Amino acid sequence: MILERQVPIPRGTTTEPTWVRRTIIGIGLVFVTLFVVIPLATVLISAFSHGVAAYGRAISDPHALRALKLTLIAAAIAVPLNLVFGVAAAWAIARFRFPGRALLVTLIDLPLAVSPVIAGMVFVLLFGAHGLIGPWLSAHGVKVIFALPGIVLATTFVTVPYVARELIPLMEAQGHEEEEAALVLGASPWQMFRRVTLPKIKWGLLYGVVLCTARALGEFGAVSVVSGNIRGRTSTLPLHVEILYNEYEYQAAFAVASLLVIIGIASLIARRVIARRKEAVS
User: Fold this and answer.
1) What count of other Cβ atoms lies within 10 Å of the Cβ of residue 52?
2) I need a surface site. Which of 28, 46, 167, 207 has the fewest CB within 10 A?
3) Which are the contacts of 108, defined by CB distance < 8 A and separation ≥ 6?
4) 142-149: long-range pairs with CB below 8 Å, 24+
């Protein structure tokens, strides 16, 4: 029996002095408190600064409800589109090697590198009244810019990476042996996906959908450009907050903003729950 020699691990590579750990933790806590906790607490405190009744009037205002409805509609269209695209793109990238694969990966990451305002301007140049396709669309009675289709386009663009980027490394790490075995045993491609692939990626898929939904609900820059920010018609919830703030209705602005904060906190809780389920499964 050959005994392996254990190489001693140099002190300091896995443990740090107490003062170092406390300093790092303290810096992290101070940073989170200054840039996360205090701003969120300010929003919630300001939202209720004039009482619960004023808060209720602000979030039940017809314009606020219209903005909320428009935001939910845009997210309800953009998220399923990105869900389908993300699964298809992740499948292609993780399972196949083909010309243009690196370019596809780069294009998926493009919305993270490009300013949302620039993306909105591109859509205006394409679909606006004086854009490349805009005159033809107008002649056929189709309105994209300053309407729901433009908002959906902008929201879909900025949320493209989230599902795909969550699934690509997951599917690459899992490999494709089980899918090949299912096909050899006579399963159809749909049966293989539904019974083998989907159970393997479901927690990563849910994680990506949660991120995509949170991003879609909170998008401001691209939507602001393509929607025209018309109050009561094309203003989403983040845009309605800006309108209220510019009109010096600070309490109402913070009240509506608190809805976005609640959505964000709910998304974080959902992410944590999904992450724990992923860890438990793995």
Assistant:
1) 9
2) 28
3) 89, 160, 161, 164, 165
4) 144/226, 145/226, 145/228, 146/226, 146/227, 146/228, 146/230, 146/234, 147/234, 148/70, 148/73, 148/74, 148/234
Q: pLDDT by residue for the chain (282 residues), tens digit each?
A: 444 455 555 555 557 788 888 999 999 999 999 998 999 899 999 999 999 999 999 999 999 999 999 999 999 999 999 999 999 999 999 988 889 999 999 999 999 999 999 999 999 999 988 889 989 998 888 999 999 999 999 999 999 999 999 999 999 988 888 888 888 888 888 888 888 889 889 888 998 999 999 999 999 999 999 998 888 889 999 999 999 999 999 999 999 999 999 888 888 888 788 777 766 666
Structure-token pair, residue 154? 């902008």
